[in-house]
Amino acid sequence: MFDVLISEVGPRDGLQSVKRTMSTPDKQRWIDALVAAGIQEIEVGSFVSPKLLPQMADTAQIVRHALQYPGLTVMALVPNARGAQMAIDAGVHKVTLPVSASEAHSMANVRKTRQEMLEEIAKIAQLRDQQAPHIKIEAGISTAFGCTIQGEVTEDDVVWLAQAAIAAGADESGLSDTTGMANPAQVKRLFNKVRAVIGDKTGAAHMHNTRGLGLANCLAAYDAGVRTFDASLAGLGGCPYAPGASGNVVTEDLTFMFEAMGLSTGINLQALIEARKPLTEALPGEPLYGMTPEAGLPKGFIAATSLGGQR
Amino acid sequence: MFDVLISEVGPRDGLQSVKRTMSTPDKQRWIDALVAAGIQEIEVGSFVSPKLLPQMADTAQIVRHALQYPGLTVMALVPNARGAQMAIDAGVHKVTLPVSASEAHSMANVRKTRQEMLEEIAKIAQLRDQQAPHIKIEAGISTAFGCTIQGEVTEDDVVWLAQAAIAAGADESGLSDTTGMANPAQVKRLFNKVRAVIGDKTGAAHMHNTRGLGLANCLAAYDAGVRTFDASLAGLGGCPYAPGASGNVVTEDLTFMFEAMGLSTGINLQALIEARKPLTEALPGEPLYGMTPEAGLPKGFIAATSLGGQR
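Output (structure tokens, whole complex):
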């Protein structure tokens, strides 16, 4: 195990925000480069209606490609039990289900109440128990830090939902700053509250960089005991609400931050930066974010991972 | 007093990195807009040779313009006692002197050893004591977190220099991440070490965003007790070593972070974002950074300052 796990969500969260559809061989090449850089977990796609998200139509194929890499955790997003069945059939190691803490966002996003989503988790857990008990189920509590539709989301609601998801059968509940509204004080406070209730079943911090606070929020989550962080190479998937503003936390900058702090990620930063190449070749002209790739690594930089970080 | 003080360095640190010279009336208009937004301290220019930095040739005029605002702390950078005399003559409230923790950088930047810079502080303190005892002297310990010329800078050297600067007559010693090499763990550790020795004479955190860690480093400095933060509107002054990478921490994003955390800055965020207008009008085409201006404030956002943050 390394000190922190950076879970790459670009092939799912990034690509679903890009209008163009990346071809299957291009996705495979990109995943190859991510794995070569030492990425240990990738959300490779989502099992949703191809009418809704044609970019994700080849997810089963991408899962099969990714499964060739021993040690790689292959994840997919599923919005419901139907998607979960497809994910199980494809052979994923882990599914993540978005569960909105905001009732208004839940209805707008998946046309289900929060209670109905909890029932969906129970159904997915049953499928998993019957067919593939090794598969992990993550509930990603979205709009955990605020909602553009509903406005404020109470912390009590988030803690309740994170706990209810575990009770329904999820293995872990993570917190997502879906709308880029989180601040470090809130992130630390809310993760502490959730951890106080569900302990080590607390999942990933999924932070956005909408207002530039992505890394600061990840740092705050780390301080609250979080060790898994979602991020997207080149910050792929600019926020639709904020032209010019990156959506996801940039994998390169997040990795640099942790490695510079002496926390091993298992990732080779130079190879990670090179993994931008297949991305730009596949999606020429797509805006890429990230300061570390522009600036390069500091003179004499020693990454924690290069010091034999595997502990 | 507000919870944190954001010291705007754009008119000095930003403009000196821009090749074009902003006209005197344009600088004045920009400073007017910054003051209107609630900025309480501005580094308005530097007293250096106009041959070296023609952008700063009108600093005495800019100081006089800024002095019309009651409550505004008018700062200028001075590289030596000669510059300090000019700053005193112009009527500044505060001077800041860059003192490199890296001997190699000190020689390259000001052609003086660290010991000679300490002697310069003593001379400046004497000028101040004789002519204008109310003026504050800040030593900005540059390359405190690493140096592109020398490589590593030991923490012992930084602590020694910060303390020696106070002993020589400086009122406070701040720490500058001149080269954008700092990480949050290092920032917290080093500020804690410095505070353990010079206590409340610990000055501002001057962080760069070269590798995207600017806000995370400011958060770490806050955790270590720092309450003054340098930042530059629109991150003006892209790092010359990193095309496309912003140099200074972006004032708008930093202000948003603190205000969202419930920490008052005295700054009106909307007015701050509007202060970009005189900047773009004066320097059309100059790349501007900052995510918060792109994304806008979150729905229902309540700034700490608007809650009557003055404590």
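Chain A touches chain B at residues 146, 148, 151-152, 179-181, 183-186, 209-213, 215-216, 218-220, 239, 241-246, 250, 253, 256-257, 260-262, 290-292, 294-296, 298-301 (CB under 8 Å).
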